[in-house]
């Protein structure tokens, strides 16, 4: 695919190719040269499936990106407040248009975007926000920075997303918002979260930091809840090193977000509220704008390759690609994730499975070692003078008792993934290498214990 962009019709054709392949066959297709490669594991002296081949590097840059940065450098407009038509305001307009929201406020990171939203919604001391333990620490940091309490609900084992039923069980009279996280860049169960929010009069802040352009029920992620947040950190599928963005349709609320992120100073030039300084700088926006021409093409290619990979692996026992909820039209595929169920591999530990795969030239890895419910920050806040003053002793004791998230623990033990921002831009043959290597290891599962 050589064009820098795609029409809607071209996108649908590309992104649907893998889905059609999956529907057309109930057995693993004879892709690649697996019959000739499967006789002996490479780690035991056999020929590897993939040899001397590299993956597309990430983050992306080209002459357009370099030219955009140089133009900003020469302009001497390096801060958003220097110009109403600089790269940051221009990026905000283009990103809002890209995902179908009315407004965007650009920030210095995804964490800053989330914290700005919490503050703009008036959430603070004594309030609670329900979110996921299976996420970047920035998610809970955004709640803690407002001196609210991050309440962690458990996961759905197959989607790696927040379990809506467990979220609803954790709603209290102090709950003010739900912060669902679209893990790996795929949509979580937004129908249910919006129902729960309406029932309990809660706000919804979408943590779409991994989910650029992903679509659910005809809407882009980040446009379904009251506010949406994105990250442009260097590993993300749209990246500028650091950087973030807030999206929304409510003009008054988005104006509050602007004021909060601009050290409490409104667009009218008055310092009106307490707020941090979270502005995106002009160079970050220049990097983002420079890569605009190829954004749709790269998104479509990741989806096509992900669909192809899923079709290839759907019948390999013990390997379960991430479950996508009904209504998911596309994902960002920041990560391509799957569960490794060791009972199908003679109960061999995941580490040996990954070691054998790596020898075949395909490196997968776990993602989050343990959920945030197992990290020491919990004891830190429960013993802090500040939180003891804001929450009753009874509430803090119950918080500690309700911390366990057993399904999250299970997901952390089972999940393996591909860092997909770059690798999913490779060829269909590269995807076959991944599937062939996994198939080969499965067929030699009786040898894994000896590794």
Q: Please, could you describe this protein's structure?
A:
The chain is an alpha/beta fold and 451 residues long. The chain folds into 2 domains: 8-58 and 294-368 and 411-450, Aspartate Aminotransferase, domain 1; 63-292 and 374-393, Type I PLP-dependent aspartate aminotransferase-like (Major domain) (Aspartate Aminotransferase, domain 2). Helices cover 39% and strands 12% of the residues. It has 17 helices and 13 strands. The chain has a 7-stranded mixed β-sheet, with helices on both faces. Strands 7-6-11 form a 3-stranded antiparallel β-sheet, with no helix packed on it. Strands 10-12-13 form a 3-stranded antiparallel β-sheet. A hairpin with a 2-residue loop joins strand 6 and strand 7 (219-220). Helix 1 (8-24) runs parallel beside helix 11 (295-313). The longest helix is centred in the C-terminal third of the chain and has 19 residues, at 295-313. The relative contact order is 0.18. The model is unreliable at 1-37 (pLDDT under 50).
Features:
451 residues; alpha/beta; Aspartate Aminotransferase, domain 2; seven-stranded mixed β-sheet; 17 helices; 13 strands; 12% strand; globular
Q: Number of DSSP strands?
A: 13
Q: Give me the secondary-structure category.
A: alpha/beta
Overall mean pLDDT stands at 92
Taking strands numbered 1, 2, ... along the chain, how are they ordered across the largest sheet?
1-9-8-5-4-2-3
- Please trace the helix and strand order, writing H or E for each element: HHHHEHEHEHEHEEEEEHHHEEEHHHHHEH
Could you tell me how far the N terminus lies from the C terminus, measured between alpha carbons in angstroms? 41 Å
Name given to the CATH architecture of the largest domain: 3-Layer(aba) Sandwich
Q: What is the CATH level 1 assignment of the largest domain? A: Alpha Beta
Q: How many structural units, i.e. domains?
A: 2
Task: Please give the share of residues in helix.
Answer: 25-40%
